[in-house]
Amino acid sequence: MQIFRRWLLVALLSVPAWVAASGQENSNRKANVKNNLRKKDFCGETSHQISALTSKQQELLRKYGVVEGNGKDKIIISEKLVPDCFTRVHFGRLISRILGTGSAGEEETFAKNHSTLLGRVVRALWPVIAESPAVPNDGALPDEKWALLNEPALSDSDVTAIVSAEIESGLDGNVAYLLFHRTLPQLNVQIISILDVNSKSVKGRLRSTSEKLYAIAILSRKPKPNLLLALWQLEQLESPSPVEQTTIEKMSRKLRSNRAVEWKDMDELAAEEL
Question: Max CA-CA distance within the chain?
């Protein structure tokens, strides 16, 4: 009996490599079939989404690469922008949920695993959301879309590129709020330049008092001696509104005690924009 057991053990250990390889190959083949079926299901889902659109919505999808659909996940992305069906459906769900709740929810892991492509998609869609008939402004969307830039899966370089262009147009409460909660040091030089008395936006207008207050508040996270001087100049050289004056006083108290300005110090200023 012992001789038989030894013989069986030797036989098992002597299984040719091609047999083991064949087993692995079968396993891989089954996984590929499963993945292909899964992708086929998602391609069917995207086809259903598009067929449910009106001819006008389909035209907008072709033109802008995205459209607001009629289903639960309202954001539908074009095949031209994201060729893979599986990825396209998940990105649509991800962006729909962030715009609706501010959180990626169950799509968080998917976002992390596809961060590079997600960055390209968000950069492409940013000027379209709330700024085009494809995803129209419903009143709250211009503010809600900023939650996209707080998505941890997006790289700092992608967010910096979007925010830099926004700062060129104007440094408002949405930009400031984001920069209070997401550190993007590459933007510091651009923000400092706003404090120049002759600083202008890309549209050629002089920077407003509120823009300069936001700039000082953002920069105060790493206190610099000249920020108090910048506040004093705003009081002396410009004509701050009552809310701006109150904000200046709050910020001055913080800076004199070597503390960073907090977002709650900017609440009244941000509310005045609404």
Answer: 103
